[in-house]
Design goal:
It is elongated, with a radius of gyration of 23 Å. Helix 3 (67-84) packs antiparallel against helix 4 (88-113) and helix 4 (88-113) packs antiparallel against helix 5 (168-196). The chain is mainly alpha-helical. The protein has helices at residues 19-48, 54-61, 67-84, 88-113, 168-196, and strands spanning 115-120, 125-127, 137-139, 142-147. The strands form two sheets. A two-stranded antiparallel sheet has the order 1-4. It has a domain at 19-118 and 167-196. The longest helix has 30 residues, at 19-48. The protein has five helices and four strands. The chain starts with 18 loop residues before the first helix and ends with a helix. Helix content is 56%, strand content 9%.
Length: 200
Amino acid sequence: MAPDPWDIPPFAGHGDKTPDQTYEAVGRALSSWEELEVSLSYLYGVFTEKGLPPFESHAEYGKPLIFSARADGLERMAARYFVRHPNQQREAEFARLICDVGRFSARRNDIAHGIVRPVVVGPPISVPDNDPSEAPWLRMNYEYCLLPPTYSDRRFHAKRTPQYALPAEEIIRFQTEFVKLHGRSTRLGFRLQAAATPSP
């Protein structure tokens, strides 16, 4: 069975040549997640129907300090909205969206709480000694990945192997999914807003 896009990927067998590649991917992914949450705060404002200025509805969505609580509040507002404005298609669209966002939120947390570390990939590298009369010495072959912090037991398997080791390409893959979710959320908000706006 093919893995779902929100699953933790198996280790790719390689990391990034420089830590800057990993750090850049982390920044891109987290920025894209925040853009997604801005679009969810817009949806929150649509569902409340209070006519609040955008920044006020955004702030109301953002009062809970953790995403799961913000998502719960958004779902409650959506349930009330669809009682007042029944639309099975849009309600199902929202249900799929918030379910997928919840699944990907675990990967967002992995990225946000991970640390960039060197990992050993492949056999040691033979490096010539400065003294040509000496035998070459061995250097560990390091590349860089995003790993969980060692204090977080729940992010390690029983034998203290990390649950994830993400090179930039995997982090960017998640970022791409965050961007797709942002698009879905934004389109839904516009559709609901357009349906609520009286025709001239």
